Amino acid sequence: MADWKTSFSPCVGEFLEAMVQFIEKSEGNKYIVWITDIKYDESLRKLMIQIKRNIDANVPCAMNYVRPKALVAVPLNQLYYRGEVLENNAQSQQAIVRLIDYGNVLHLPYKRLYAPLRIMQMVSAYAIWVMLPDYCDSLEIEAVINIRITDQYVPNGIYNAEHKRSPLLLSLEILDKGSYLSLVKCFPDDHNALLRFSSLSNAFDNYVDAILKSSQIMNFPNNIVPGEGSFVAASTLKGWRRARLLGFYKKGNKFLVYALDEGVIM
């Protein structure tokens, strides 16, 4: 049964599109960060709204409740966040609290801590702790990155991950150059976007799909996994697509591919 002491942990080898919530440490190209899987964004937003609706803002925690490993509600920016008490000082009535869905560590007075609601206890923590040992780009809070979990450090619970770079990051200024480009995705920094040539119509997609369903296609032998960067034909939920292979999740027997004609990762 899920509870707040566990996190929505990915499987080793799994790919995920993640948002950087907190940068705990950076040394050159090595980063230790707290991330959330963006597929949980809506669930997290709804949880925070539910906490705000039901918590009694006039009744802070009892002082004897504030202790290490206790779950508390923390008011910030007109919302309430779930936090775990890491340390407390009864004399100064101050506590060090980590926001379990974001990773941030805050120093707060007892009067800003609230007893948890039942719903806060029943939902797993959304943030996970990740090490990116060789991240070559600049990294900022709320950056969206594609990563693969490679292993987990025990006992500290840090996941080791590798960054899978997304191709075709272009300046938004190029949108002014003509109507032959359409926007696929805008990234959180508002300076980059993923674009698609509009001339690639559905008719072309259907043509490619028909060709790749024909007898002309050649499958890889079952015991051979094509290398990263290979040009492949990928069978997706939207049909066959021309794609570039980005990675392979062995346990789930799944591939991460970049659909060349759509500008999306699948």
Report on this model:
This is Tudor domain-containing protein. InterPro entries: Tudor. Residues 19-132 form the Tudor domain. It comes from Glossina austeni (Savannah tsetse fly). There is one protein chain. This protein is mostly beta strands and 266 residues long. The chain has two domains: 14-163, Roll (SH3 type barrels), CATH 2.30.30; 173-265, SH3 type barrels (Roll). The chain has three helices and 16 strands. The strands form four sheets. A five-stranded mixed barrel has the order 1-2-7-9-8. The mean pLDDT is 79.
As a percent range, the share of strand residues is: 35-45%
What is the general shape? elongated
CATH architecture of the largest domain: Roll
pLDDT averaged residue by residue: 79
Structural key phrases:
266 residues, mainly beta, SH3 type barrels, five-stranded mixed beta barrel, four-stranded antiparallel beta sheet, 16 strands, Tudor, Tudor domain-containing protein
Produce a short descriptive summary.
Residues 19-132 form the Tudor domain. It is built from 3 helices and 16 strands.
List strands and helices in order, with pairings.
Blueprint: E1 15-27, E2 30-37, H1 41-54, E3 71-76, E4 79-89, E5 94-99, E6 105-109, H2 118-122, E7 128-132, E8 144-152, E9 159-163, E10 170-171, E11 181-186, E12 192-197, H3 202-212, E13 231-236, E14 239-249, E15 254-259, E16 264-265
Parallel strand pairs: 7-9
Antiparallel strand pairs: 1-2, 1-8, 2-7, 3-4, 4-5, 5-6, 8-9, 10-12, 11-12, 13-14, 14-15, 15-16
